[in-house]
C-alpha cells in the first residue's frame, strides 16, 4: 500500500460540480460527472456508473475508461457489495476482495458509492485506480459529497 495518497480539494470540486450539473437530465448529469471525476481526481483508470435497471442487477451507465463488465449482480464484486449493503465500499487491494470482478487487470483499488433515493437504490458510482491503497477516508467522504450533489441536482428516474 502506498503511504502517500494524492490530495484532492473536494470542497472545490463540489462547487465546480454544482455549476457543471446545469440540467436535471440524468443521462447528461451522470455523463458529465463521470468525465469530471475522471479528469479531476488523480490516479484513476476508470470512473462511472452502474444503474439498477432490474431487480438485484446493475447495468453499465455513463463512464470514462476502458470497456467495462456488464451486467453485475448484487452478489458479485465490489459494486455488488455496495448495492447489496447500501454502504460505500473502499477496497485497498481488489485482488484480496472475495468475488472481485477483474474488468481491468490494471485496477488495484476501488471505491464504490451507492446512490439511493429514499430507501431505493438507484445505482452506484464506481472508481478504480491502478494504485493499491489509492482511496482514503478523505476520498470516500469527498466522493460521497459529490454523489449527494448529483442526487440533489438530478431527476433520477425510478426505472431506466
TrEMBL record:
Domain of life, per lineage? Bacteria
Checking InterPro entries in the record gives: FRMsr_CS (IPR000614), GAF (IPR003018), GAF-like_dom_sf (IPR029016), Phosphatase_reg/MetRdx (IPR051330)
Q: Name one Pfam family in it.
A: GAF_2
Q: Which residues form the GAF domain?
A: 30-148
* Keywords tagged on the record: Oxidoreductase
Q: What is its EC number?
A: 1.8.4.14
Name of protein: Free methionine-R-sulfoxide reductase
Q: Gene name on record?
A: msrC
Amino acid at each position: 500500500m502506498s503511504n502517500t495518497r494524492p490530495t484532492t480539494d473536494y470542497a472545490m470540486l463540489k462547487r465546480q460540480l454544482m455549476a457543471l450539473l446545469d440540467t436535471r437530465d440524468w443521462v447528461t448529469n451522470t455523463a458529465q460527472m463521470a468525465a469530471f471525476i475522471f479528469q479531476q481526481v488523480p490516479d484513476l483508470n476508470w470512473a462511472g456508473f452502474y444503474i439498477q435497471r432490474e431487480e438485484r442487477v446493475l447495468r453499465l451507465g455513463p463512464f470514462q475508461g476502458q470497456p467495462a463488465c456488464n451486467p453485475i449482480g448484487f452478489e458479485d464484486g465490489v459494486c455488488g457489495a455496495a448495492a447489496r449493503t447500501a454502504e460505500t465500499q473502499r477496497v485497498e487491494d481488489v485482488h484480496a476482495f472475495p468475488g472481485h470482478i477483474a474488468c481491468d487487470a490494471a485496477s488495484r483499488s476501488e471505491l464504490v458509492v451507492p446512490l439511493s433515493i429514499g430507501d431505493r437504490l438507484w445505482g452506484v458510482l464506481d472508481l478504480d485506480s491502478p494504485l493499491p491503497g489509492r482511496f482514503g477516508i478523505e476520498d470516500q467522504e469527498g466522493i460521497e459529497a459529490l454523489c449527494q450533489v448529483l442526487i440533489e441536482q438530478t431527476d433520477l428516474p425510478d426505472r431506466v
